[in-house]
From TrEMBL:
Gene3D superfamilies membership: Electron Transport, Fmn-binding Protein, Chain A (2.30.110.10)
Transmembrane segments annotated in the record for this chain: none
Record organism: Luedemannella flava
Pfam family, one: F420H2_quin_red
InterPro entries: F420H2_quin_Rdtase, Split_barrel_FMN-bd
Record lineage: Bacteria, Bacillati, Actinomycetota, Actinomycetes, Micromonosporales
Family: Belongs to the F420H(2)-dependent quinone reductase family.
Name of the protein this chain belongs to: Nitroreductase family deazaflavin-dependent oxidoreductase
Catalyzed reactions per annotation: oxidized coenzyme F420-(gamma-L-Glu)(n) + a quinol + H(+) = reduced coenzyme F420-(gamma-L-Glu)(n) + a quinone
Length: 145
């Protein structure tokens, strides 16, 4: 079984720089990025089985964490979303706290409500939705007890 606590980080670039800053400071630096909160999500690769870690903007709803699988409005889902769709058990870091969570994709009225909450945090999600025919998923992360 893949150890989600030993992830492979993204290729060099802004995401890797953001992630390193977040990890090295236990979230003191990097938790807030461009004025919005970010967490680190670790998923197991659906084909490789390798744990992969990604910094993502998040929201909160009744003790759960929310993510938007926008990929900037690309026609394809981001790899992290495909990974958690295949295996919904993930590892999450919010600031210095690391915990396991189960992920599910919101649907129907729940998705509509959570989408509105997430666009309050990052309004560009609405723009991204106009760029693609796919319905951009809203992911709900529930902490594992």
């Amino acid at each position: 079984m893949t150890d989600l606590r030993q992830p492979t980080d993204p290729s060099p670039g802004w995401q890797l720089d953001h992630l390193k800053e977040y990890v090295e400071s236990d979230g003191e630096h990097g938790h807030i990025w461009m004025g919005v909160p970010c967490l680190l999500l670790t998923t197991k690769g659906r084909r490789s089985g390798i744990a992969r870690r990604t910094p993502l903007i998040y929201g909160e709803d009744a003790g759960r964490y929310l993510l938007v699988a926008s990929k900037g409005g690309s026609p394809d889902h981001p790899a992290w979303y495909l990974n958690l769709d295949a295996d919904p058990r993930v590892l999450v870091q919010v600031k210095d706290e690391v915990f396991e969570a189960d992920a599910h994709t919101a649907t129907g009225a729940e998705r509509a409500r959570l989408w509105r909450e997430m666009t309050k945090i990052w309004p560009d999600y609405d723009t991204y939705q106009t760029k693609t025919d796919r319905e951009i998923p809203v992911v709900v992360l529930t902490r594992v007890s």
